[in-house]
Design goal:
The structure holds 2 protein chains of 2 kinds. Chain A has one domain. In chain A, α5 runs antiparallel to α8 and α10 crosses α11. Chain A has 11 helices and 4 strands. In chain A, strands 1-4 form a two-stranded antiparallel ribbon. Chain A is mainly alpha-helical. Chain B has one domain. Classes of the chains: A mainly alpha, B mainly alpha. The interface between A and B is large, with 44 and 42 residues.
Chain lengths: 296, 312
């Protein structure tokens, strides 16, 4: 039983990071209908920004850690908006395939750009938060895991608040329902899309720092696998659906942790894709998504 | 003789002739030329799926991996037994042909099995599920000790020659272009242009998609076998997501559904890293920037003049 709860905590902290990433994918997909492959690299840039920000901030304090997190989030929000402005906006209305290729190009540009600037040797991420082992009954939980879960919960709550209780959030939902009709009622498409990218990228940046806290080795290609998996999580929950993305991420995090702890741990990376195939075949709209019939 | 058949015959003869008299060629140039040939096979076969049939597959590297592994396993297991044959060279090359065909066939079966369920999906979803399958194929190879596990296979005999490579290039281009220009093959274009109209006209879109997918997988498997016996060492990481992306990029830059354009794009994109070798650190950054720039400036592909045809 203890082991079950231990795995549950591990799965929850991994799932929380996937959730932060998955939300960015699902928001962009909901509005622009394309897979933003560069999102995973915004996540990676987030952890690099965190790495450099941590040098100027006293390590091992709660406030220092939060400042590092905030700096990474702001930097990633700016990066996300810049990517949208210069790479995706000129292609709005172009066939999805072209946007997809641009996104892949942007992803490669970020990966190899960072590699060029900082080298490809993995770096050790400093312990920006105070770290200790917490005993909860029989369970041993690292404080980093609790921080990951706590920060993710706060950010997800904040996102929920922004999307469902602000004017800009309402505009985002309107654009994702019907971009043309949203423009007709006076919504500025460019502002909404830029805001969506800023939000999603900020979450990815936070995810990058949190991921680096738990797996403290960062390199330019660290985002690829978590990125693909987070996208799978977004599909699992129903693409375009915010609670769905979080749910899918938690399921995926749990499943990976369970398999990782079993005898089949080398198949861990295949779990996400296996889940993807099953969900695609039996419920393409995702767990919480609504199925829409194609009109002829 | 129809034009395509004459072209096929001429290129086969040319390929054999270059190999026979190719001793004077620089080994480096020969190697690059064979890399170009393999890229052409991959791009043209993917073009059948992506360009002509309009099904966006991101898993071509998975089929290439299947072909590479099966063919290598064949030559590694059976090769030593043939060393004592009366004509070892002939025996080795017939074994190679058999291994390539077996690799291609197994890849085709994999393509069929994967295509059957996944081709119900469209667009991005199809891209993702093919990507998922390719990753799963990779993880399976990584966990099969008989196929070398994470280290992969090495020590394959260097059987890939210019003639083999360009023979298969000719055969691939011939098959794809004859198929597309046949009465039956017009169905692929119909499925791409409007699936609903195609099925209203009595065509079976699912069948066309599966035929395209299976045939594409077959040639990808062949290319994998050639690749394995050119590089002489393969490992699962060589067939990852990025390899699939590379092939897709060739198809898109060449102009979806434009066979000649795809051949030119595959050639250029394989030569590009060689040309950029002096600035090797910047190579991938330049590649990525070119990709974004081209999509912004020329979204229909480098060589497609027929606007609007590239839409899927």
């Amino acid at each position: 039983m203890t082991e079950f709860f231990q795995q549950l905590i591990n799965g929850l902290s991994l799932g929380a990071i996937y959730a932060l990433l998955a939300l960015g994918y699902t928001m962009v997909y909901g509005i622009l209908r394309f897979i933003n492959f560069a999102h995973a690299d915004v996540f990676m840039v987030g952890s690099f920004v965190g790495y450099y920000a941590a040098r100027h901030i006293p390590a091992g304090t709660i406030w220092g850690g939060l400042i590092v997190l905030l700096v990474a989030m702001i930097a990633c929000a700016v990066l996300g908006m810049a990517i949208e402005r210069f790479a995706y906006r000129p292609l709005r209305g172009a066939p999805t395939l072209n946007v997809l290729i641009t996104a892949i190009g942007m992803s490669l540009l970020l990966e190899y750009g960072v590699q060029l600037l900082f080298g490809s040797t993995p770096r050790n991420f400093p312990a920006v938060f105070p770290s200790s082992q917490v005993q909860l009954g029989d369970l041993t939980v690292s404080s980093n895991q609790l921080i990951v879960i706590g920060v993710a919960a706060v950010l997800l709550g904040g996102l929920q608040r922004i999307v469902f209780h602000t004017r800009l959030g309402a505009a985002m939902r309107a654009v994702s329902l019907n971009p043309r009709a949203a423009q007709l009622v006076g919504i500025n498409l460019n502002t909404v899309i830029a805001f969506t990218f800023a939000l999603g990228s900020a979450l990815a940046g936070a995810g990058g720092v949190l991921y680096a806290l738990n797996y403290p080795s960062i390199d330019p290609f660290m985002g690829v696998m978590p990125g693909l998996k987070a996208f799978v999580a977004a599909i699992l929950g129903g693409i375009g659906n915010l609670p769905g993305a979080a749910l899918g991420a938690l399921i995926l995090g749990g499943a990976e942790t369970v398999v990782g702890g079993s005898a089949y741990s080398t198949y861990k990376d295949a779990i996400a894709f296996g889940l993807l195939i099953v969900i695609m075949l039996f419920r393409p709209a995702g767990l919480l998504g609504r199925f829409t019939a194609e009109k002829v | 003789m129809p034009r395509q058949h004459a072209a096929l015959l001429a290129s086969l003869v040319a390929a054999v002739a270059v190999t026979a008299f190719g001793g004077a060629l620089n080994a480096y140039h020969l190697d690059v030329a064979m890399n170009v040939g393999i890229a052409i096979i991959l791009a043209v076969s993917l073009n059948l799926v992506n360009g002509h049939t309009g099904q966006f597959s991101l898993g071509h590297a998975g089929f290439m991996a299947v072909g590479a592994y099966i063919a290598s396993a064949c030559t590694l297991r059976l090769g030593p037994a043939l060393a004592s044959a009366s004509s070892p060279v002939l025996a080795q090359h017939s074994l190679f042909l058999g291994a390539l065909l077996l690799g291609g066939l197994v890849a085709a079966v994999a393509g069929f099995l994967i295509g059957l369920p996944s081709l119900r999906l469209k667009g991005d979803y199809l891209a993702l599920i093919t990507l998922g399958f390719a990753e799963i194929i990779r993880v399976i190879f990584q966990n099969t000790p008989a196929l070398g596990g994470a280290i992969g296979l090495n020590g394959m005999p260097p059987l890939t020659t210019f003639a083999w490579t360009y023979g298969w290039v000719a055969l691939t281009v011939f098959t794809v272009s004859c198929l597309i220009n046949s009465t039956y093959g017009r169905g692929f274009l119909a499925v791409r242009d409007n699936e609903i109209a195609a099925s209203a006209a009595g065509l079976n879109p699912t069948r066309y998609k599966i035929v395209a997918f299976t045939l594409g997988a077959f040639f990808a498997g062949i290319a994998g076998g050639l690749f394995a016996h050119l590089k002489l060492a393969i490992d699962p990481r060589g067939f990852d997501f990025f390899r699939s992306v590379e092939i897709v990029v060739m198809v898109i830059l060449g102009g979806m559904g434009n066979t000649l354009g795809v051949i030119v794009a595959a050639t250029l994109l394989t030569l590009l890293p060689e040309v950029l070798r002096p600035v090797a650190e910047y190579r991938m950054v330049i590649y990525a920037a070119l990709l974004i720039g081209l999509m912004l400036v020329r979204p229909q592909g480098l060589f497609n003049v027929r606007l609007g045809k590239s839409r899927i």
